[in-house]
Amino acid sequence: MSETLWIEKYRPKTLDEMIDQEEVVARLKDFVKEKSLPHLLFAGPPGTGKTTAALCLARELYGEHWRDNILELNASDERGIDVIRRRIKDYARTMPVGEVPFKLIILDEADNMTSDAQQALRRTMELYSRSTRFCLIANYVSKIIEPIQSRCAIFRFQPIPREAVLERLKFIAESENVKITEDGLDAIWEESQGDLRKAINILQAASALDEVVTEDVVYKVLGKITPSEVREMVNLALQGDFLKAREKLRVLLYSYGLSGLDVLKSIYREVMSPKVLSQMPNHMQAELIELIGETNFRIVEGGDDEIQLCALLAKIALKAKGG
After folding, report:
1. Do residues 194 and 165 lie in contact, with contact meaning Cβ atoms separated by under 8 Å?
2. How many angstroms separate the CA atoms of 256 and 172, rounded?
3. What is the residue range of 210's domain?
4. Which residue has the higher pLDDT, 295 or 65?
């Protein structure tokens, strides 16, 4: 594998390079143009460009002095009330470098901050607003207390659509001389679901395993079963052949060492796929989803994985035979 993480190598350096976040980019570029900035709150799913947007904003706002004017704290750092009172306050008191009259403090994964730390932060944001702006980044905006939300301009990042993710993956693969098949791209998309960071990391890991990135290579590097194997098991149950479906289940559980929930999630994904949905009436689809939900509850509550999954396959087989 390359010594360089591709996610860092191909991370956008300017707001114009950001992928499929046009509304967010347009608003941020207005702030850069005016050299004025409110406190910011970036919210959205992982891998959609929140941290990248904050760093691109800093680069364009401060130019060559951008590193001297930002303090970036992540959830891996201590995030208690003492950090707010000491490190952040000490930094907020200092004067910025360059023409922009304020510094920028980036609090990544702010939704992991303790409640006491957030309460301390709300007052700090007011006291040092003349010399400092805060950019909070969170996956779940609901975990940020209301007083902080009311002090910030909120930017909501959407999951990156399939076409944009695949286009970026093809660009990286071409730049790195990696051959990737269409089914390999589809497999990466299925596992990432709009998380571009995860998609790029999967591509890099798969390219180190084989010269050509195919669906099998992707699932092998992830340590997961291929959809075709789960599809075969589901189809056997839908044909009413419970015994063969059970044998396939045992292969998945013991040969691959998967947990019951892993197998159940794969079954759910296959049942919801167009290939399987087209083969059954609507009422059958609803009944299968209900059975999967009940099985999920039983496993989470402590039921034996194999027994519960066998019971699910048995019920599917019975319904397929009209039972």
Report:
1. yes
2. 31
3. 162-222
4. 295
Long-range CB pairs of 209-212 (<8 Å, 24+ gap) are 211/179, 212/179, 212/180, 212/181, 212/184
Q: What are phi and psi of 78, to 5 degrees?
A: -65, 135
- The position carrying tokens 């006291």 is 127
Residues 59 and 130 in one domain: yes
In a domain, 81, yes or no: yes
Same domain, yes or no: 141 and 28: yes
Is the pLDDT at 1 greater than 60? The verdict is no
**Domain check: are 26 and 115 in the same one?**
yes
> 223: pLDDT confidence band, cut at 50, 70 and 90?
confident
Q: In the prediction, which pLDDT does 78 show?
A: 63
pTM: 0.79
Quote the number of domains for the chain.
Answer: 3
Question: Residue 299's domain is classified under what CATH number?
Answer: 1.20.272.10
Residue-level pLDDT at 117? 84
Structure token digits, residue 137: 């980044």
The token duo for 51 is 């941290």
Determine contact, residues 191/51, Cβ cutoff 8 Å.
Answer: no
